[in-house]
Write a structure and sequence with these properties.
Largest sheet: 7 strands, mixed
Order of helices and strands: HHEHHEHEHEHEHEEEHHHEHEEHEH
Number of strands: 12
CATH architecture of the largest domain: 3-Layer(aba) Sandwich
Shape: globular
Protein name: Aminotransferase
Strand order of the largest sheet: 2-8-7-6-5-3-4
Cofactor: pyridoxal 5'-phosphate
Keywords: Aminotransferase, Pyridoxal phosphate, Transferase
Organism: Facklamia lactis
Strand content: 5-15%
CATH topology of the largest domain: Aspartate Aminotransferase, domain 2
Number of domains: 2
GO molecular function: transaminase activity
Distance between the termini: 54 Å
Structural class: alpha/beta
Length: 388
């Protein structure tokens, strides 16, 4: 029944707009690429050297099904330090990336036809991941005038007797929004009152510029109903290592482990060692990354403010800028195409992240350095559309 529903509504097309970036880059030989959130900073050299030595020392075999015990212990300590929440190693599952962790979590909790709420704009793969686990994605729009926070009344209006969970992503891709404690407390109350699971996609915890990151799992009463998704991709510049984790009640981790045993068996052992070394040296590794991306985002914000027909909220978090282009009178896709053809710049249209909240916006990933950001906006302001 669900396969028929998916086929009829989505024509079994699970591709995402982000999959087209390689084609766009091939159209011109001087393209500046703001499309994908792959940090241009290479993984820390000391982490690489220690991991190479681990490989030579024999860390090339299967680990425990739930992950290298040293890494799980380090994650427990890191969560206690950063979240103020106590976990045991039995409540940690190491996964092959954050995306894999999200799929495992959804596969573990979703029964056929159950609804998973997404706040829009959302990370592009979410709806497809829900559909692949035979669930039904439903969306709650968020708006710039609300700083892209979730309106509790809109959230409650989307809840039905089929609602199983809500996916929370803060700091948020694509908007950069950081949900306030008050907002998270309101969401938590609704989820506790209505017995809804929270999947907290905590991928950008390092990049919260205005105030400290607030994990929803730290709010009283939320640990037992929250599945935390973590990743080393953005917070440690380790996208290619494909390593992530789930922190959740042991009963859920047991299900996740059984599913994963029949999926990829274990996360790559050598990537797990790299993650362990990164955690052990996180202060030295993360401080310059945070400073660099904060600087880049502030520079891009200044450039946007100087560009006619563009605006954006003051940067709050992540490595993205969600730029308002409504004054152009064009759609997000039209503006993205215009910038490619006339300035040789690749951005993603906001509608890639949801049709309602994403229209009228384009997303920049600040994965190029300061000089390239300035060069890009010099090109933009030379176009007829954005020259004033």
């Amino acid at each position: 029944m669900m396969k028929k529903y998916i086929a009829e509504r989505y024509q079994e097309d699970f591709s995402t707009p982000m999959g087209n970036s390689d084609f766009l880059l091939d159209r011109y030989d001087d393209v500046i690429d703001f499309s994908l959130g792959d940090p241009d900073i290479t993984t820390d050299g000391e982490v690489i050297r220690k991991t190479m030595q681990d490989a030579l020392d024999g860390h090339t075999h299967y680990t425990s099904f739930q992950g290298d015990i040293e890494l799980r212990q380090a994650l427990v300590e890191n969560l206690a330090d950063n979240y103020g929440v106590k976990y045991s190693t039995d409540e940690i599952m190491v996964t092959t990336s954050g995306c894999h962790a999200m799929w495992l979590a959804l596969e573990s909790i979703t029964n056929d036809g159950e609804e998973i709420i997404l706040h829009e704009p959302y990370f592009t793969p979410y709806p497809q991941q829900v559909l692949l686990t035979r669930g039904i994605p439903t969306t709650v729009p968020t708006y710039e005038e609300d700083l892209f926070q979730i309106d509790p009344k809109r959230l409650e209006a989307k809840i039905t007797d089929k609602t199983k969970a809500i996916i929370i992503n803060t700091p948020n891709n694509p908007t950069g929004a950081c949900f306030s404690r008050e907002n998270l407390e309101a969401i938590s109350k609704i989820c506790q009152d209505r017995d809804i699971v929270v999947i907290s996609d905590d991928i950008y915890t390092l990049y919260s510029y205005k105030s400290s990151f607030v994990p929803i799992v730290s709010i009283p009463g939320m640990k037992e109903r929250t599945i935390v998704i973590g990743s080393f991709s953005k917070d440690y510049a380790m996208t290619g290592w494909r390593i992530g984790f789930i922190a959740a009640p042991k009963s859920l981790i047991d299900i996740v482990r059984n599913i994963n045993e029949n999926n990829v068996f274990t996360a790559p052992s050598i990537s797990q060692r790299a993650a362990l070394h990164a955690l052990k040296d996180k202060e030295r590794i993360q401080a310059p990354m945070l400073a660099e991306y904060r600087s880049r985002l502030n520079i891009l914000y200044e450039e946007v403010c100087q560009t006619p027909k563009m605006s954006m909220l003051e940067p709050m978090g992540t490595i993205y800028a969600f730029v308002n282009i409504k004054q152009t009178g064009m759609t997000a896709e039209e503006v993205a195409e215009y910038l490619l053809e006339n300035a040789h710049i690749v951005v993603l249209p906001g509608t890639a992240f949801g049709e309602e909240s994403g229209e009228g916006y384009i997303r920049f990933a600040i994965t190029v350095d300061d000089s390239v950001i300035r060069q890009a906006f010099a090109r933009i302001r030379q176009t007829e559309l954005f020259n004033g």
